[in-house]
Amino acid sequence: MLRLKLPTDPRWANIAEGNLEEILTDHAWCEIKAASNAMMLINLLPEFTEITTELTSIAKEELDHFEQVHEIIKSRGWVLGRERKDSYVNDLFKFMKPGNRKHLIVERMLFAAMIEARSCERFKVLSDNIKDEELAVFYRELMISEANHYTSFLQFAHELAEEGYDVKKRWEEWLEFEAKVIASYGKSETIHG
Description:
Elements: H1 11-17, H2 20-44, H3 49-75, H4 87-93, H5 101-129, H6 133-160, H7 167-182
Helix pairs in contact: 1-5, 2-3, 2-5, 3-6, 5-6, 5-7
Protein name: tRNA-(Ms[2]io[6]A)-hydroxylase
InterPro entries: Ferritin-like, Ferritin-like_SF, tRNA-Hydrxlase_MiaE
Pfam family, one: MiaE
């Protein structure tokens, strides 16, 4: 369903499990950034009522995920660390093509879909490969939510694209680019690292 060109090596889950406090802190910040992204998109297209309503739900859900991750961190006697830089996301951001307002919004939707797709895939790798039973169940549940966000952002891109903008073709370009980017990651205990 995700059509990612380069799957995550399952051994990345072992790296992540080697420092659960770090992966959980990084994950918590990813959720905050995802909520912020949804709110920023609302800022860009308030006149699209149905999309704005859905983005509001996504933002709330991402904040709920943050709260869940934060509760796990606290329950284990840890403290949420400072925000982590997400080099993977920064690399993807550079791939967005400039254009008019509508074009930029579609690019932002594809950018968001790409991040959600990889997050979904990483959550699946974690849920299938870590020994921590609580987190395996937790990540399986989040995987489903991320898949829904991924499909929502792709749908928004299709709905908002102007005539002549080939969303399917551009999405293929995103998938190809992302495979090159992710090839240099998978060696650290971060969600996209």
